[in-house]
Write a structure and sequence with these properties.
With about 220 residues, the chain is mostly helical. Helix content is about 70%, strand content about 0%. The protein has eleven helices and no strands.
Length: about 220
C-alpha cells in the first residue's frame, strides 16, 4: 500500500526531472509500482498534489512560528514579519519545486488555482493577527476598510512569492529587504494617521453643528 508521502515525493521527483506533469495517472503509478486505487485514495489529480503541498507549507509555517517563545508578545506587525521570514526560509528547502509550480501556473495578484488551498489558511491567520491589532489599538479601525486589510496582506503574499522566485541575490537578501519594506509600509497604512484625525474632527463638527455656530464658524 502506497503512502501519501511516497506519492508526493514521486510526483515532485517526476516534475523536476521532466519539467512537466506525468502524461497520465496510469503511467505515473506504474512507474511507482503502485495501483491507481492507491493514488486515488489520497489525491484526486496531479493538481490536487500541488495544492496540498502549498497548503502543507503554509500550515507548517504557521504552526512553527506560533511555537516561538515570544510569540504572544509580538505586535501584529512583528507576527506578520515572522510569518514571511519563516515561510521563505521553509520554501528554500523546495525551491526547485516552488519555481516549477509557480511558473507553470503563473503567480499574479489574483489567486492561481495551485494556491487556492493555501489562501484561506493564510487569510484566516492574517485576520486573527489583524483583529488582535484592532483590539489592542495598534491598528486603526476604519469603517469598510478594516475588513479589507487581509486582502492587502494577500497582495503582499503574492508579491513576496514572485519576488523570491526571481531573486538571484546572495542568500536571497533582497527578498528579506522586500519583506521588511513591504510589511512595514502595509502596516503603516493600517495604523492611525493624521488623515484619520482629520476625519474624526470633521465628524465631530458635523455632529455638533449648533456648537459650531455659537463659536462663529
Amino acid at each position: 500500500m502506497a503512502t501519501q508521502a511516497q506519492i508526493k515525493k514521486g510526483y515532485i521527483d517526476y516534475v523536476l526531472t521532466h519539467d512537466e506533469q506525468p502524461k497520465s495517472v496510469y503511467s505515473f503509478v506504474k512507474k511507482l509500482k503502485i495501483t491507481e486505487a492507491d493514488f486515488y485514495a489520497f489525491y484526486a489529480s496531479f493538481e490536487s498534489i500541488e495544492k496540498n503541498i502549498w497548503f502543507e507549507l503554509t500550515v507548517e509555517t504557521i504552526d512553527e512560528i506560533q511555537k516561538q517563545e515570544l510569540w504572544e508578545q509580538y505586535s501584529s506587525r512583528e507576527k506578520m514579519l515572522s510569518f514571511f521570514y519563516s515561510y521563505v526560509e521553509l520554501l528554500k528547502n523546495q525551491r526547485s519545486f516552488v519555481i516549477y509550480s509557480l511558473k507553470k501556473h503563473g503567480i499574479r495578484l489574483s489567486t492561481p488555482e495551485v494556491l487556492s488551498g493555501a489562501k484561506p489558511i493564510f487569510e484566516n491567520f492574517a485576520e486573527q493577527i489583524i483583529n488582535e491589532g484592532l483590539e489592542s489599538g495598534e491598528l486603526a479601525e476604519r469603517k469598510f476598510f478594516s475588513k479589507r486589510y487581509k486582502d492587502a496582506l494577500w497582495v503582499q503574499y503574492a508579491f513576496i512569492l514572485n519576488f523570491w522566485v526571481n531573486d538571484d541575490s546572495n542568500g536571497f537578501e533582497k527578498t528579506d529587504e522586500a519583506i521588511e519594506r513591504g510589511i512595514q509600509v502595509t502596516f503603516d497604512l493600517f495604523q492611525r494617521s493624521p488623515i484619520d484625525n482629520l476625519f474624526e474632527y470633521g465628524k465631530f463638527l458635523s455632529q455638533n453643528g449648533k456648537l459650531k455656530e455659537k463659536m462663529g464658524f
